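Hi R.,

Here are the chain sequences for the assembly we discussed:
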Amino acid sequence: MSADTSPAIELRGASKTFRTPSGAPHTAVRDLDLTVGRGEFVAVVGPTGCGKSTTLTLVSGLEEPSDGEVLVAGAPVGGVGGKVGFVFQQDATFPWRTVLSNVMAGPRFRGVPKAEAKEKARDWIARVGLAGFEDRYPHQLSGGQRKRVALAATFVNDPEILLMDEPFSALDVQTRALMSDELLELWEGTGASVVFVTHDLEESIALADRVVVMTAGPATVKQVFDIDLPRPRKVESVRLLPRFIEIYREIWASLGEEVRITRERGAAHVA
Amino acid sequence: MSPEVLAKPVKDTASPPDRKQVRARAARRRRAVVVGARVLLLVAVLGLWEALSRAEVIDPFNFSMPSKIWDQISTWVAHGTAQGSLGQQIWVTLHEALLGWGIGVVTGVVFGIALGRVALLADILGPYIKVLNSIPRIVLAPIFVIWFGLGPASKVASAVVLVFFPVFFNAFQGAREVDRNLIANARVLGASDRRVTLQVVIPSATSWIFTSLHVSFGFALIGAIVGEYIGATQGIGLLVAQSQGTFNAAGVYAAMVILAVVALVAEGLLTFAERRVFRWKPAHTER
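And here is the predicted structure of the full complex:
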């Protein structure tokens, strides 16, 4: 097996077609080729509703591709694997579980003994800055705190692949910047490969090693940009570098066109 | 505080304790008005009934009167009923209702969750459940008396068929409406299908299920009472039937009063249990 040298994620000509409630087929992604190296942070940007999230569900194994191949660590994806962590756009904490119990859920589902799961969970709760909140229920936390719970619940499983679907889009601007910094810190300690979907170009440049621009739906890869900004980064300060602005301009030239197409189609059922 | 102070327009400089006291007093007054009006309404209705009945404006034989109903209840409490002590009758009815309720709830929840989770099962059984639900199930009570006799079994059976459907439909709906994100999240975190059902679907469906529990306990009582009314050796339903048979209107009303008390107590216990189960929910009804 070439498992050690194969890239973390590989999509080869992957397509996904859904059946809409009216019965008509809807192609979310078509002919998608994308490779994510081990330990690499890749951000995927594209117009709203173009099918970015579908890419993540294919990699996670929650959905199967209609066509093409999806490989994780060189092996085809068959159902949800143990290597993947997924942070959702919406709140996905279990409202009937306390913070501690939410973070313990992953290890417990995977058969880790209770005491060990509790220990790991406490450690991650502390790392995301929620020590002392272990016995709270999600409704007693702020949106940012709930996102921290979601991060801890994901990282506690030691994922090799981290899929993030606009995880911070529901947060206010300051909280978002703070969470981005913390995400980078947490990630740098793990060596996981990340696919981070967002429609915020600034966020994607500040976080990623590479930025993938998707076309208007059905989505496919339009262009890939290498981000040569030094690490470790602080989101707020990296934004002010001249190189950042240069990259931003370059990528926006590519992305802006797709955004225009989406808008003109009247597919602007945008919030 | 003097009334003049209260009448003055409240300025920003008004010290907070004053305002707080004013508000507290207003709230207390409102509560007193509500309670007072309630009592007054009850006294007025009972008094009018009593007066009209005594004056024979309405037929006291058919409509009875509050004082006679009270006499009837005290007689039952002091000397017991024709079938035995009143406590015994209440216990028999409650026992049948609780047993029927328990069986109906458990089967309803199990079927509801199973059909909500397994689409194939729902597709196969769906039409039959609709047909069964469309039957007015109270007509089954006489059949149950024929099948299971005059003992408690026939009443339990009537209670079960009344309780099953509302609980089933709510559990089914609850299982169907679980947030897809939560299920996806649980699966990515490593939960098996069984874990997803037990630890995601059932907890999310509990608020739906609890809603049906309130309604369905009333149904269980109806099932037990109707069963007893049709044929029994003990129970409150039998008290109603016998009072009716001897043209004792006060007896029918007295049994109704007792039932109302039993139902209210059960409702209170259920609300208490609900508060314990839903500690994870915000204090207000919705997030």
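Residues 3-62 of chain B form one domain. Chain B touches chain A through 23 residues (CB under 8 Å).

Let me know if anything looks off.

Best,
T.
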